Every structure is written in structure tokens, then in C-alpha cells.
Amino acid sequence: MGVITYSQEITSVIAPSRLFKAMFLDSHHILPKIVPGGIKSIEFIEGDGGVGSIKQTNFGESSHIKYTKHKIDALDVGSFYCKYTMIESDIKFDKIDCVVEEVKFIAAGSGCVCKMTSEYHVKEGCELKEEDIKKGKDKAMGLFKAVEEYLVANPSVCA
After folding, report:
1. According to the model, what pLDDT value does residue 86 have?
2. What is the value of pTM for the model shown?
3. How far apart are CA 53 and CA 70, in angstroms?
């Protein structure tokens, strides 16, 4: 098994506390409101949102994917850090065992810098293509920008 790692940084005008709350602490309430056609619901299968919890995201009818399950591996509210692992999806994991994501929001002026690292744990003898990873990164970037726009337009949300 090999591990392919990708990192990226995104600058945002939103304070780290608000983005962290929207993306992780209150995502089960916030994200279905922001992208109702893309995300139908987010529910906890196990736990209450802390470390060890398993969260299922159910996607809209037009999505090529129906659901994903993520396990929260680490959560540090004080430093705006979350690490989680995608452990299941309705799309067959024929090339990967799991995807581990680390996200940290760092204050920068009145906004923040979001540092993201993705580890794709590739099954033995399989090759993961750059365009497959790019599709996932593009969807994550689209969601990030949608959340940012929503928070700009609604300054009392996640305040």
C-alpha cells in the first residue's frame, strides 16, 4: 500500500473560529442549508461530534455519490484543527483503502489561512490518477467557497 499526499492552502476573509464552526462543529446543521442540492443531510452514526464519532453525509439526487462516512480522529477546537478519515462510501473503494484529511485554520489579519492535507492510502498494486484526485479537490474547494460566501452574507451565523 502506498500513500499519496496532497497539500493546499486557501486564504479566506472569514475568521478561523467561524469557518471551523461551520465546517466541523455545526456542519450537520449548516452545510445542508448552504448547498441543499448537493448535501441532503449530515448525521452522526456514532458519537456526538467529538473524537471517535462517525458522521455520514448524504448527498443530493444529482450527485454521482450517495453517501460518505467519516471518522473524527482528532479535534482541537482551541487551535481550529480537525483530522478525519473517510472510512466508507457507496462508491466502491477499488483503488484506495481510505482518505485521511487534516484541516487547520490559522488566523491571518481579520481572516485566516486554511491549510489542508489529504492522504490517499492506495491499495497494493493500484495506481491513483491525478485527475481522480483533482475532481475531489475541486469539489472540496467549491464547498469551501460556498461556505465562505454564505458566512460573508450572513455575519451572525457561527459568530
Report:
1. 94
2. 0.90
3. 8
